[in-house]
Specification:
By secondary structure, this protein is of the alpha/beta class. It has one domain (22-198): Rossmann fold (3-Layer(aba) Sandwich). The chain has six helices and six strands; from the N terminus they run αββαβαβαβαβα. It has a six-stranded parallel beta sheet. Mean pLDDT is 90; it is low at 2-15.
């Protein structure tokens, strides 16, 4: 009995490791040549999509992922590489408002408030990506996040008829990023399953919002 359990456990480990590797390869291939770290090289797009993350960590410290992402979004705007920004995040409770936090952080960096659109139903990357097309009418976008999320978002965009490129925010020091990067490996497997198996759609759609031309 114990031998069978050990064999089954090993089989699960092998399958899990295989799925992580396959997901990584598929997503990296989909995003190859579509992410940029140098703002001078990235093509202009009318709209940049900024996926949400918490502004502060549980201990009350500023979240370096958030800070670097907002700095990248502001740099992209002031370099003339996007005309508008859609900040898309979670707002499922009154006390937690990712889109407003992002807008405030961008305004603090000098981005005009009227150039920022808020998406309050970006509960996950898939929601943010699909809603920028279905709600905001954009099929050619620049996604602004860390490289790992940009790659996954580009993969999702491709399968929903969106031509997406990514502008990479600065990486976070390893001691602060390890947990997030580990979680990302499983998020990639889920993205593959959402696209090819479950055919997932956003939790909510709703009324369309026109972005100025």
């Amino acid at each position: 009995m114990w031998r069978r359990l050990a064999i089954a456990f090993c089989a699960v480990l092998v399958l899990s490791a295989g799925s992580l590797l396959v997901a990584r390869l598929v997503i990296e291939r989909a995003a190859k040549g579509k992410t940029y770290s140098d703002v001078s090289l990235i093509p202009h797009r009318h709209v940049g999509l900024v996926p949400g993350c918490p502004r502060k960590l549980p201990g009350g410290w500023l979240n370096p992922f958030f800070e670097n992402r907002m700095a990248a979004a502001a740099e992209l705007y002031f370099s003339g590489k996007v005309d508008y920004l859609v900040v898309s995040g979670d707002n499922h409770v009154l006390s937690y408002d990712e889109p407003l936090d992002m807008k405030n952080a961008l305004v603090e960096r000098g981005v005009p408030a009227n150039r920022i659109y808020l998406d309050y139903a970006g509960f996950r990357t898939l929601d943010s990506v699909v809603r920028v097309k279905e709600i905001f009418g954009q099929e050619n976008i620049t996604i602004v996040s860390q490289n790992f999320q940009n790659q996954r978002a580009i993969f999702l965009a491709r399968h929903h008829g969106i031509d997406a490129i990514g502008f990479n925010a600065a990486d976070v020091a390893p001691q602060y990023a390890a947990k997030t990067l580990l979680r990302e490996q499983f998020a990639r497997v889920k993205a593959i399953l959402d696209v090819y198996v479950f055919h997932k759609q956003p939790h909510f759609l709703g009324l369309k919002i026109a972005i100025d031309n």
